[in-house]
Amino acid sequence: MDDLHPEWEVRDLRGGVNFVDYANIPNRFFEMMIECDGFGPHWRDISRRDFDRNSERQNLLLLDDKKLLRFTYDGIREQPSRCQQTVLYALAKWGQTAPGKGVKLGVYERAILHYSLTFKGERMTPAMVAKELDISSKTATSYMQSLADKGYMVAETSPTGRRMGFIATRPKLTQKR
User: Fold this and answer.
1) I need a labelling partner for 30 at 20 to 30 A (CA). Which of 61, 86, 158, 174 fits?
2) Per-residue model confidence (pLDDT) at position 2
3) Is the pLDDT of residue 126 over 90?
4) Domain architecture of the chain: domains with CATH
């Protein structure tokens, strides 16, 4: 991800400076921070004062509407797909809202749209999405077709009419006069 910044500086409500392990900032309206906590340096080997400071720092970030995910070092090493899926769910849930009124997107639809950003206008297939989100190809096809019906994707077909994949688009907003 081009928008993943290691060791990101974040100001809290009190004006204090905090550092988080990673920050994903796809636009100026959305910031998601990720913390990776090793058992020793973050729990076993810290003082009571540092333990309290970690909790206070997290509270101040959350009160300032920052989106924060915490993972353990062991969890990332031993179950990386679970951590990846959690990040995708978070991006889907906390990410940009759908433009236009009345357009509702589900968690998987939002995750697919976020994943589509890595394709930069190129075709993606349901098999790619299924592998990335750990869902069946049939389920991926269903969600991608739903996004096409809502104007977020366009189905790419061969000259014989066979669907080859989908390309993400930006839906047009209707202007009020």
Assistant:
1) 174
2) 42
3) yes
4) 4-91 (no CATH), 97-168 (1.10.10.10)
